[in-house]
Amino acid sequence: MEIKAIRGFNDILPDEIGKWQFVEKTAREVFEGFGFSEIRIPILEKTELFSRGIGEATDIVEKEMYTFIDRGGHSLTLRPEATASMARAYLEHQLYTFDPVAKLYCIGPMFRYERPQKGRYRQFYQIDAEVFGVENPMVDAEVIVMLIDFLKKVGIEKLELQINSLGCRICRPGYREELKKFLSNKSFQLCEDCQRRLQTNPLRIFDCKVESCQEAIANSPKVIDFICSECQKHFDQVKEYLEAGGLTYLLNPRMVRGLDYYTRTAFEVVSYQLGSQNAVTGGGRYDNLFQEIGGLEIPGIGFAIGMERLVLLLPKDREFVQTLHLFIAALGEGALKEAYRLLNELHLRGIRAEIDYEGKSLKSQMRRADKLKVPYVLILGEKEISRGKAVLRNMETKSQEEIAMGDLLNNLVDKI
Ligand code: HAM
For the chain, what are the domain ranges? Predict the structure, then answer.
């Protein structure tokens, strides 16, 4: 039986890859312009990094991780996100001794055992940017300005920036208790998972998709009404700096994010063109993450963009596929050898050229050139070669001209 890919794991085929390369190139240009450097981290980490970093009682850790015991008996996990790994690398290599502030980005696949649907996969790609070592709200606004600039540069419009503040370890426990109290009276409305969440992690009930849970939580107290004066001041400044950066935003008091490490600023960028999986980006501040994973007290803020969702939103009228420059149609064995010699020289000069290796008829070679959408075809026949000539056909205008073999290469390079 033919072997197929695993459910939720996708191939990105050559006719799609242009979009992905464009998105990655733009991210590198924009992020590096904002002073960020790339970091590459492993795909596998010790399971503990995520259970402690993301939080034991989150959906990701409870039921979405690809965890296994390796041959040495260690519990390892395919990374479900990059923030915890980047924080681990920053601590492990003591990057703070070089400069306390690190601006890092990373691009790559993440793995979560979720139910696949449009915009939600089990292997998906993220572009992730993080700033470690700054508590100042100025940097919260700076990363959001960078994110929006990037999204504009890839051509995505009609996006909504939503923000919220989730408080800190001083004020959040009070809110948690309030929420618990409020929901205790409605626990009969909650699904089985949320009844458990009510005890372990009531904030996670906000993320539940079950209608009766959403109804139960509809009029719940809002975290923003419980944050301490320090968090309020921080949030006010974030808003002020966002406005100074020319951004508009929507306050979404129900957005709590699905990972436990967040403190203070939380944000998402959503697109109403995406259907139910509408978050293109999620991010926020996490001032306790470093401590959770056994490190120093270092503040951090960042975001991750879901690349599959971003690619779905790219402008439809834009051409992303890299087409060939030239097709060489060789007729006869001698001509094919000459075409092969020429092909190598063209490739060495950076001209994207192709030949037909099978020596098919001119008609069939022209059909292939047409399908490949090449702008020019060089026709090499034995007769032409003996006269020191070749024919160059412009596929758009259908005009043909004879060019001398002697300066064929320069002539082609000039034209193309
Ligand atoms: P997240 O909200 O879990 O945050 O994921 C960020 C983005 O990744 C989402 O907005 C979505 O676009 C994409 N995404 C998540 N899960 C899937 C999936 N199963 N299939 C396709 N796309 C998906 C984080 O991962 C945090 N680490 C973000 C962050 C960075 N916070 C601070 N720094």
Answer: 14-171+227-312, 326-415
280 close to ligand 1 (CB < 6 Angstrom): yes
With a threshold of 0.85, does the pTM exceed it? yes
Q: Which CATH code for domain 326-415?
A: 3.40.50.800
pLDDT bucket at 275, cuts 50 / 70 / 90: confident
Q: Which CATH number fits domain 14-171+227-312: 3.30.930.10, 3.40.50.1910, 3.90.780.10, 1.10.10.10?
A: 3.30.930.10
Q: Please state, in angstroms and rounded to a whole number, the distance separating the CA atoms of residues 263 and 301.
A: 9
Quote the CA–CA distance of 80 and 226 in Å, as a whole number: 31
* β-bridge mates for residue 353, sequence order: 326
pLDDT digits (tens, 9 = 90+) for 337-364: 999 999 999 999 999 999 999 989 999 9
Residue 108, number of CB atoms within 10 A of its CB: 16
137-153 vs 229-244: helix crossing angle, rounded to 10: 40
Q: Is 238 helix (H, G, I), strand (E, B) or coil?
A: helix
Nearest CA residue ID for atom 8, ligand 1: 306
Percent of the chain whose predicted confidence (pLDDT) is above 90: 84
- 164 CB near ligand 1 (under 6 Å): no
The reply to whether ligand 1 has any atom less than 6 angstroms from the CB of 283 is yes
Cβ of 284 less than 6 Å from ligand 1: yes
Name the token pair of 313.
């939103």
**Residue 125 pLDDT class (50, 70, 90 cuts):** very high
pLDDT digits (tens, 9 = 90+) for 142-179: 999 999 999 999 999 889 999 999 999 999 999 999 99
Tell me, in angstroms, the distance from the centre of ligand 1 to residue 64's CA.
Answer: 13
